[in-house]
Amino acid sequence: MTLRPILIHPDPRLKKVCDPVTEITDALRRQADDMLETMYDAPGVGLAAPQIGVMNRMFVMDCVKDENEAPNPMVMINPTITWESDELNVYEEGCLSIPEQYGEVERPAEVEMQWLGLDGETHSQKFDGLWATCAQHELDHLRGKLFIDYLKPLRRQMITRKMQKLKRELARG
């Protein structure tokens, strides 16, 4: 497993729609392992392929925060939302590609998702709470959308300027 560098906004790859995965390969399995290791190391609860510069429709997530509970890593390939609740939930979201910046985003409180697993089988599950928020946030990444796109323009511009400054500082080393 290899830790992958996480792209920082604004990077044009974070605004692109990702291509569907057409087959489960060993390279895809390695990508999933790398993504999980990178996500846990960050630390985060979700990571989408475009965040590591890979433009395919895959994300990983694990929203278990209780240290006494076993991790529950999930790998979702070509995910889609098949149902969403009318009830909405507001959650203060952050993003590994937009470090140390947060904003309140309103999304459906519950969703049902369908995806392809690394086993080649189709899976379906209903999510609520942080899991539902995370799944929708990561799916947005595959559509070229960031959580800041839900914020008011002024706040979005402020965060983008902070990220541009951060990228310049990182480039200087």
CATH class: Alpha Beta
Helix content: 25-40%
- Name the CATH homologous superfamily: Peptide deformylase
Number of strands: 7
Sheet having the most strands: 5 strands, antiparallel
Shape: globular
Strand order in space, largest sheet: 1-2-3-6-7
CATH architecture: Alpha-Beta Complex
Describe the structure.
It is a single chain. By secondary structure, this protein is α+β, with helices and mostly antiparallel strands. It has a single domain (12-172), classed as Peptide deformylase (Peptide Deformylase, Alpha-Beta Complex), CATH 3.90.45.10. It is 29% helix and 29% strand. It has helices at 26-41, 129-142, 153-172; strands spanning 46-48, 58-61, 74-84, 88-95, 98-108, 110-116, 122-128. The model has no long low-confidence stretch (mean pLDDT 96).
SSE map:
Elements: H1 26-41, E1 46-48, E2 58-61, E3 74-84, E4 88-95, E5 98-108, E6 110-116, E7 122-128, H2 129-142, H3 153-172
Antiparallel strand pairs: 1-2, 2-3, 3-6, 4-5, 6-7
In short:
The chain has helices at about 25-40, 130-140, 155-170, and strands spanning about 45-50, 60, 75-85, 90-95, 100-110, 110-115, 120-130.
Task: Give the key terms.
Peptide Deformylase, single chain, 173 residues
